[in-house]
Amino acid sequence: MIHENSFGIDKKGHLTLHGVNLVELCEKYDTPLFVFDEVKLIENFNRISSAFSALYPKVMVCYSIKTNNNLAICQTLKENGAYAEVASELDIHVALRAGFGGENIIFDGPMKSKETLKTAISKQIRLINVESLTELNRVNAVAGELGVKQAIGFRINPFKEPGIFKYLSLNKLVTAAYCNLGSRFGFSIKEAYSAVQQATKLKNLKIEAIMAHPYRVSTKVLLPMMRELYRNFGVELKYLNIGGGFNPGGARFIGNNDLIKDFLRRKIGLKSKLAENRNITNIESVAKSIVNEIKQGLEDLPEPTIIVEPGRFITSASGILLTRIDHVKNAGGYKWVMVDAGTNLLPRFGAIEQRKISVANKASKQPEEEINVVGPLLYVEDFINLKTFLPKVSEGDILSISDCGAYTISRSTQFLHPRPGAVNLDSNGNVKLIRERETPEDVLYKDKTI
Questions:
Q1: Is the CB of residue 165 less than 8 Å from the CB of residue 207?
Q2: From the CB of residue 327, how many other CB atoms can be counted at a distance below 10 Å?
Q3: By C-alpha distance, which of 185, 294, 308, 307 is closest to 244?
Q4: Sign of torsion over alpha carbons 355, 63, 49, 75
Q5: Looking at the domain 39-254+281-314, which fold is it?
Q6: How far apart are CA 252 and CA 437, in angstroms?
Q7: In the chain, domain spans
Q8: Residue 341's closest CA among 33, 83, 64, 46?
Q9: Which residue among 59, 113, 249, 429 sits deepest, i.e. has the most Cβ atoms within 10 Å of its Cβ?
Q10: Angle between helices 189-199 and 215-233 (to 10 degrees)
Q11: Superfamily the domain 7-38+316-443 falls into
């Protein structure tokens, strides 16, 4: 099984990307190794940008820096017209180093210290989205100290306590058991009106935006509020920020319920559905639906600029991870393939990402056995894929794991192993090292002995 688009198979039966033999790449840079396809990165950015701008005259596509904060990745997107969405002082530093000017940066996130706000405002960041009254007053105070009038937005959180209905839904019950974790972000709808009223009295602020996340809930929450703020408070918003959360397809997200259902299906002789593709609404259809809803919901209001904040959609499919098989063993009724990359490089957000895997040095071979691909870390849940069909594999084989461009480098850890290097491939097959492989001394660099 091989990947699509720019991938191919050479005469050796090895997987290639833009003509570059990925097995030979591992010989030069060692494994694990992140490989980024610059063509795919730019293509994904242009696709989501065009999906909206073809239907609406004013659009800002703000790349979510936290998704992949590698400088070369961020610089490439900046050079192709992206704005930046940042959520910390580190993000701000990365965005500025990558060449984004303050006017091309918006600042999100639930915690913004006074020092971070000083940095942001002094760098003339275009917009700061506030999430609490404390933060609102803090931004006003810092802007006053610096003698500027700072543009702000309000993050709106549509969360509502479901009451007795949470006992009728497992998902809602789990959310309640975890103390409604998502409710801490932004302002409730009721709180938001009061916060806006307060902000109109603060002399160092300009109210320019409202936002919500993810995009699926944004327009239904934001458009009625936008109309009411205009008619009742005289606030004319410049920006309507619908957040991110756009699904790029590729990796399939599965949870405990999916694994349990699959286990039971197999027990009664039914075929596994774990590897089945799910229908994903394409971004053009998503954009059309959103823009139509905005145009209808604006009624007589002036057209705002639409802000979208994609991250995973842009970077996920642009990155692969190459990892080497250390050994293969049988245990517990399953075949286990131990590789030199694990959840230290592919961390999870709760759900399991079931990614497509190819055997790079056996790319022309057909799948013939079911295996579990697991990492080198000393805990049970360090696995990459479960119940994956691959050609017969053995020690030394190179696996190519797809959809590894998002929340991998930026969330990778040094737990038990230094972090790997990363290379960028352009359309001509030119290879450029964009992150050096760490050594044990790099891990200890900031430590001091007693």
A1: no
A2: 11
A3: 308
A4: negative
A5: TIM Barrel (3.20.20)
A6: 29
A7: 7-38+316-443, 39-254+281-314
A8: 33
A9: 59
A10: 40
A11: Lyase, Ornithine Decarboxylase; Chain A, domain 1 (2.40.37.10)
Total Cβ atoms within 10 A of residue 294 = 21
> Mean of the pLDDT values across residues 326-345?
97
Please list the residues that pair with 151 across neighbouring strands. Answer: 206
126 DSSP assignment:
S
Residue 207, classed as helix, strand or coil, is strand
Crossing angle for the helix pair 89-97 and 71-79, nearest 10 degrees? 60
Residue 308 has φ and ψ, to the nearest 5°, of -120, 150
Mean per-residue pLDDT, 266-291? 87
Residue 20's pLDDT is 97
pLDDT value, residue 257:
85
Tokens standing for residue 15 = 């997987």
Overall pTM > 0.90: yes
CB atoms within 10 A of CB 146: 13
Identity of the residue numbered 215: Y
Grouping H, G, I as helix, E, B as strand and the rest as coil, residue 101 is: coil
Q: Which helix (H) or strand (E) holds 92?
A: helix 89-97
> Closest Cα to residue 266, out of 337, 348, 334?
334
Are the CB atoms for 83 and 101 separated by under 8 Å?
no
Residue 176 scores a pLDDT above 60: yes
Q: Return the closest-CA partner of residue 419 out of 406, 408, 431.
A: 408
**Nearest-CA neighbor of 275 among 384, 153, 388, 195?**
388
Kindly report, residue by residue over 378-413, the tens digit of the pLDDT.
999 999 999 999 999 999 999 999 999 999 999 999
> Please, which pLDDT band fits residue 169 given cuts at 50, 70 and 90?
confident
User: What pLDDT does residue 166 have?
Assistant: 61
**Token digits of residue 372:** 């579990």
For the chain, give percent helix, strand, coil, nearest 5.
35, 25, 40
Distance CA 236, CA 226 (A): 8
Element (H, E) at 339: strand 334-339
With beta carbons less than 8 A apart as the criterion, state whether 338 and 325 touch: yes
